[in-house]
Design a protein that fits this description.
Helix 1 runs antiparallel to helix 2. The protein folds into 2 domains: 194 residues, Cupredoxins -  blue copper proteins (Immunoglobulin-like); 87 residues, Immunoglobulin-like (Sandwich), CATH 2.60.40. The protein has 305 residues and is an alpha+beta fold. The protein contains 7 helices and 14 strands. The strands form 5 sheets. Strands 3-2-1-5-8 form a 5-stranded mixed β-sheet. Strand 1 and strand 2 form a beta hairpin. The protein is elongated and about 100 Å long. The structure holds dinuclear copper ion. Dinuclear copper ion binds next to loops.
């Protein structure tokens, strides 16, 4: 998670501004320090030397050391303000809209135009502008994928927007950047940038309903319905809970518990057994599932590709 290696136009703008400022301020530092060294050397005490004459009310100097900082601040503020406006740009008409809702402590991700719902993994096409519509279902969160660019808050009752175009395919980790309670540090996400073709394939596969379970997975579905999961989680065609993440294609996600653990059967079993033990404050309760129900449930969820 580095801001110094951007992969989106938003990040490039901020990074370029930063790099320029480092260059300019380094130049100012060198000039000031050189003057300082010169003054110390020239006016050092030497035997038989009289004290230098103090300067009072020198109009030229007064104007000089007022004007020069004003010029420096002006030179710095013009590109800064321009960049602020550009990072708040109105979305392009062809931008892909994605609704991202912050929740304690995970990210709900909806593609309203594509009829796709997922969580904690935001898949975007490379080369096309993306506009995130950032909302909160509870407290204030902050969206931050460092290699994409600046942070933006998710605030209840308000929609904040963040528009960017990713230029390099890859998987970029992100993190909630506003303290939001016990598991703030565990509110992570992945931004996955894919070629337009791969993105279209991803959308197609995520639009399909999940494959009906067979064998052990069928028992897992029964456990999902009987064990209480159904009250909070949606699986398209089966349930419509909205408290927890949509699980329609859970099996194809890379991580569980908002980017905290790899999506493996072992981690998933441990997670379902005792969520608050794996993620402090997790809203998902311990459910009274037998060992057989639990392992069938893990098989079922893993089958939801
Ligand atoms: Cu959400 Cu910190």
């Amino acid at each position: 998670m580095s801001t110094f290696n951007p992969v989106a136009d938003l990040g490039w703008r901020i990074d370029t501004l930063f790099t320029n400022f480092i260059g300019w301020t380094l130049f100012i530092l060198v000039v000031v320090e050189a003057l300082l060294v010169w003054v110390i050397w020239s006016f050092r005490d030497r035997p038989g030397r009289e004290e230098p004459k103090p300067v009072h009310g020198h109009v030229g100097l007064e104007i000089g050391w007022t004007l020069i900082p004003v010029m420096i601040v002006t030179i710095i503020s013009v590109p800064t303000i321009a960049t602020i406006f550009r990072t708040q740009a109105t979305p392009a008409p062809n931008a892909l809209r994605i609704e991202v809702t912050g929740r304690q402590w995970w990210w709900e991700v909806r593609y309203p135009e594509l009829n796709v719902v997922t969580a904690n993994e935001i898949v975007v096409p490379v080369g096309r502008p993306v506009t995130l519509e950032l909302k909160s279902a509870d407290v204030i969160h902050s969206f931050w994928v460092p290699r994409v660019g600046g942070k933006r808050d998710l605030i209840g009752g308000k929609v904040n927007r963040l528009t960017f175009t990713v230029d390099t395919p890859g998987t970029y980790p992100g993190q909630c950047a506003e303290f939001c309670g016990l598991s703030h540090a565990n509110m992570r996400m992945l931004l996955v940038a894919e070629s337009p073709e791969a993105f279209d394939r991803w959308v197609q596969s995520k639009r399909e309903p999940s494959v009906p379970p067979t064998g052990v997975a069928e028992g897992g579905r029964a456990a999902f319905m009987a064990g209480g999961c159904v009250a909070c989680h949606a699986i398209r065609g089966l349930s419509s809970g909205v408290v927890g993440p949509d699980l329609t294609h859970f099996g194809s996600r890379q991580t569980i518990a908002a980017g905290l653990f790899a999506n493996t059967p072992e981690n998933l079993a441990a997670w379902i057994k005792d969520p608050p033990a794996m993620k402090p404050g997790a809203r998902m309760p311990k459910l009274p599932l037998g060992d057989e129900q639990l392992s069938a449930l893990v098989v079922y969820l893993g089958s939801l590709k």
